[in-house]
Write a structure and sequence with these properties.
six-stranded antiparallel β-sheet, 22% strand, Elongation Factor Tu (Ef-tu), domain 3, single chain, alpha/beta, binds flavin mononucleotide
Length: 478
């Protein structure tokens, strides 16, 4: 009934427009020379037809989501990209007048799915085909149950990278699960390989169409800004490991000196001098605060089996000269920001993972939040100190409540951070009971799974998954 009325409405409008256009023609033939009047009358009609047609159009398409309620936009993100895309998706829907509820999958329960009728999921994959940390509780509690989702229409944007074996594994699992529970796909899952713009455009088009919104300019990642390398210091002279450098960079435009501890930088692709190859884009954790006056990175120089310098790190650690231009943009990584309040933080990391942890510590100290505990591991106490002198100064100044350093090649005490963590089980439990957020930064091979296993032993699987769902277990590992 509603759609019949809608169609009648449109038909009546068109008829009226035709009649009015006819009247206008008569009008113009009688009053030759009153072009301005005619144009303004035409504009009024056009605007009126346009406005009424626009108002009538969504009502006629009564399959549209906003007729029955809003759209749930759900993100599951490890390093912020899925969250950024969820916000853009929401903005595009709102542009079309759709009510939107943006939610992190971490806080989504079966009851939210029971009441939603339309949902868009943007889900990344991390680790080795794993769901983002925050999604663990959803996987455990909601995905293992068998809710009936026949009332739900949905679509999935799966983020991943084909360099990994299990491409888009979590997005695919989520899609299969929704479908198996009876939910109806709005359109096929879209998979994004390493931020591929074609796939993002495809998603954007689908979303704009759903919203009935006007065409919008293509989503683009923010442009790279012009920065310069100002300083490069070797942090581990005499190390048996690969050289590790502290870099300081400044932007040409001082307004770009803006980020939060936990954010990451993307270094733009560039052509090596005299080389036709374009060097790939690279990501690094930021090691400083804007108040430091420059952006710090900690970069380990990589060499291939052939002994040649790695393409990204080689440029930053050897080829670029001080003063050289570097294309850089900051990516917000809200999942790795410090808590707003003074509750404790437990920071765990190794090697170049010190970068992100150092920025977090600086942010905590700047806020006067001093319940900070850092466990950091490297190889040799003498050679691999990275920023350890500074950490010890913070500890001595009581800005770092506890500092545990573990040296895997100096055979004294525990060898790795996970061993140190196990040895400190009781204080770890106490810290978590006091509301601590745990941050893990460093290598995915060995360290991150080792720390995860140790935390599960100390706190129990359930507690680890619960704190992850509450945003209190955050990992930036690579
Ligand atoms: C440590 C790490 C592990 C990853 N593992 C996978 C993987 O197993 N499969 C995959 O398709 N993509 C993988 N990726 C790529 C991410 O899914 C991709 O970069 C995505 O855009 C990240 O989105 P997010 O910032 O919302 O987490 C991995 C990325 C990182 C940093």
């Amino acid at each position: 009934m509603k759609s019949v009325l809608g169609q009648c409405g449109i038909g009546a409008l068109l008829l009226l427009a035709v009649l009015l256009a006819g009247r206008l023609q008569d009008f113009s033939s009688l009053h030759v020379g009153s072009g301005a009047q005619m144009a303004s009358a035409a504009a009024v009609v056009a605007a009126w037809v346009g406005w009424t047609a626009r108002a009538a159009w969504p009502r006629r398409r009564d399959d549209l989501p906003h007729d029955v309620g809003g759209i749930l936009v759900v993100h599951a993100s490890q390093t912020g990209f899925a969250t950024e895309l969820a916000e853009r998706t929401a903005a595009a829907l709102r542009e079309g007048g759709v009510r939107v509820d943006v939610r992190d999958l971490a806080g989504l329960g079966a009851s939210d799915l029971a009441t939603a009728t339309r949902a868009l999921f943007i889900a990344s994959t991390t680790g080795e085909g794993d769901a983002p940390d925050g999604a663990m509780a959803f996987q455990r509690e909601v995905m293992r149950a068998a809710p009936d989702l026949h009332h739900l229409t949905y679509a999935v944007l799966a983020l991943g990278d084909r360099d990994y074996e299990d491409f888009c594994a979590f997005g695919r699992d989520l899609d299969r699960w929704l479908h198996a529970r009876g939910a109806l796909p709005w359109f096929d899952r879209i998979e994004v390989d390493n931020g591929d713009e074609g796939a993002l455009r495809h998603w954007q088009r689908q979303v704009t169409q759903l919203a009935g919104a006007a065409e919008q300019p293509d989503w683009q990642r923010p442009a790279y800004q012009a920065w310069r390398l100002r300083e490069r210091l070797l942090l581990n002279p005499g190390s048996v490991g690969a050289p590790c450098f502290h870099l300081a960079l400044t932007p040409d435009d001082p307004a770009h000196l803006a980020w939060e501890a936990g954010d990451v930088v993307e270094i733009g692709p560039r052509r090596a001098r005299g080389d036709a190859d374009v060097l790939p884009h690279r990501e690094y954790s930021i090691a400083s605060l804007p108040a430091d006056g420059s952006l710090h990175l900690v970069v380990r120089q990589q060499r291939g089996a052939d002994g040649l310098l790695g393409s990204g790190s080689g440029w930053l650690t050897a080829l670029a000269a001080e003063g050289d231009a570097i294309d850089l943009r900051v990516r917000r990584n809200a999942g790795f920001h410090v808590p707003a309040d003074a509750r404790p933080v437990l920071l765990v990391g190794n090697g170049t993972g010190i970068a992100g942890l150092r920025a977090l510590l600086k942010a905590r100290i700047a806020r006067g939040h001093l319940r900070n505990w850092l466990l950091f591991g490297e190889r040799h106490e003498q050679a691999d100190r990275l920023h350890v002198d500074e950490l010890e100064r913070w500890r001595d100044a009581e800005q770092l409540e506890r500092l545990d350093l573990v040296w895997s090649r100096d055979v004294r005490g525990p060898r790795y951070v996970q061993d140190r963590l196990r040895a400190a089980a009781e204080p770890v439990r106490q810290f978590v009971a006091d509301g601590a957020t745990i941050y893990v930064c460093g290598s995915l091979a060995g360290m991150a799974p080792g720390v995860d296993a140790a935390l599960r032993e100390i706190l129990g699987d359930r507690a680890v998954e619960d704190i992850a769902a509450a945003g209190r277990y955050r990992r930036d590992v690579y």
